[in-house]
TrEMBL record:
The chain crosses the membrane at residues 40-59, 79-99, 134-151, 163-180, 192-210, 231-255, 261-281, 293-314, 326-345, 357-376, 388-409. Coiled coil: none annotated. The keyword Membrane applies. It comes from Poseidonibacter parvus. It holds the Pfam family NnrS. Signal peptide: none annotated. This is Nitrite reductase. The keyword Transmembrane applies.
């Protein structure tokens, strides 16, 4: 009986298949449109590679893009909102049918149309000098509105089990409208200040999403390894970290040069770092498991970012704060996208989580690239080299992702289940 259970466990993941019984009866759905994450990851990986390398070339003066008169602001916007909408679309269209049994998965033609809207948003961004800001604003804001409509069951859920995800998306939509209002001249606030607020809101959304990802991924990993324990992501720790991020973001916007912000940065860093204590289980040691290490690196990077920004403010050296912010953006947010793409790429294609030389290298390169870019204040003489080489190193993991995962994304599930 034990061997039979073991064999059944090896055939398919145990926690990511309940919603497939509601899979729509749609004929001739190609594998790349068979579930929400598939087309998104197929497009997102190469888009990240192209965007990061192009930015490195633009920043170093090797390449000139006409519309980028404020290249830094637009680069930050695209890496925050452009990538976020793809990541949220993959997460919601894959995860909501799992969180709300009975919800019909979003596949086939309907999925193709919404992915096309995201692609049009990216095209409008790169051609904004020709098509204008209005078109880019309409396409990108429409994308977030659609995501909120798709997630309406989360917000309207009477038990409010996952409503925080929906409320976070509403706040991010409001911030994006605010940003475009600034660019169109309706408000006088600088776009870069609004994007700093957006960074805080996105980090909050990521922490909320990672609670769900951790619960599924770590427990499924332990089940595969035969570890008899349960991982629980404790809400009070997450809520404290979210409060710290929200407070730091608010004070930075209102009083960016106030020394109290430095202490808030250190306190926020401590609250985020405390999230790693969830990986210390009562009976079993799991911090030697690769995916636990991968996931723990996310709060570690975020914590380093807020700690060094706080330290920088307390030392009256405002120049370095935006470089240290790369621990949050390139590091914490970048790792979040990559690791979720890896986990979903394995689990939701009917495979078990697997770590190997490729997954190790992907994570390591993101960390190294982040260190190169975030520590520029200590090596200012090499700023040009650090920027271009860190851009290349940061892009390589997504090239490796294409090599490792594209076959999974373009073929039916390994366990024969639809999706």
């Amino acid at each position: 009986m034990e061997n039979e259970l073991k064999n059944n466990t090896q055939e398919q993941p145990l926690h990511a298949t309940n919603h497939y019984m509601y899979y729509p009866d749609e004929k001739d759905v190609p594998p790349y449109l068979a579930y929400g994450f598939r087309p998104v990851f197929l497009l997102l990986a190469p888009y990240l590679v192209i965007s990061m390398i192009l930015w490195g070339l633009v920043w170093n003066g090797v390449l000139s893009i006409p519309f980028m008169d404020a290249s830094l602001t637009w680069h930050i916007y695209e890496m925050l909102f452009g990538i976020l909408t793809a990541g949220v679309m993959a997460f919601l269209t894959t995860g909501l049918p799992e969180l709300f049994p009975g919800m019909i998965p979003f596949v086939g033609q309907r999925l193709k149309y919404i992915v096309a809207l995201w692609v049009l948003g990216r095209v409008s961004f790169w051609t904004i000098d020709i098509t204008g800001i209005w078109l880019t604003a309409i396409l990108n804001i429409s994308m977030l509105i659609w995501l909120l409509w798709f997630a309406k069951d989360v917000v309207l859920d009477k038990l409010q089990r996952h409503a925080s995800l929906g409320y976070s998306l509403i706040s991010i939509l409001a911030i994006e409208i605010w940003f475009f209002s600034s660019k169109l001249g309706f408000v006088s606030i600088e776009g870069i200040s609004i994007l700093k607020v957006a960074t805080g809101a996105i980090v909050i959304l990521i922490l909320l999403a990672l609670r769900r990802v951790n619960m599924e991924a770590v427990n499924e990993l332990m089940e595969d390894k035969g570890i008899d324990d349960i991982y629980i992501s404790r809400p009070p720790l997450t809520n404290l970290a979210i409060f710290g991020i929200a407070l730091f973001t608010t004070i930075e916007f209102l009083y960016p040069e106030n020394s109290a912000l430095g202490w808030l940065g250190l306190a926020t860093a401590a609250s985020i770092l405390a999230l790693t204590s969830d990986y210390i289980l009562k009976d079993k040691f799991i911090l030697n498991q690769p995916y636990v290490i991968y996931l723990a690196l996310i709060p570690l990077m975020l914590s380093l970012g807020y700690a060094l920004m706080g330290w920088d403010i307390l030392n009256d050296n405002i120049y370095g704060i935006n470089h240290f912010r790369h621990f949050i953006t390139s590091g914490g947010i970048g790792l979040s996208y990559l690791i979720v793409m890896m986990i979903i790429g394995f689990v939701h294609t009917g495979r078990h989580l697997t770590s190997n030389i490729y997954t190790h290298i992907m994570i390591l390169l993101i960390v190294i690239a982040t260190l190169m870019r975030a520590l520029i204040p200590f090596f200012e003489n090499y700023i040009q080299e650090l920027y271009i080489y860190s851009s290349i190193l940061w892009a390589i993991p997504f090239v490796i992702y294409i090599k490792v995962f594209y076959n999974f994304l373009l073929t039916p599930r390994a366990d024969g289940i639809k999706g």
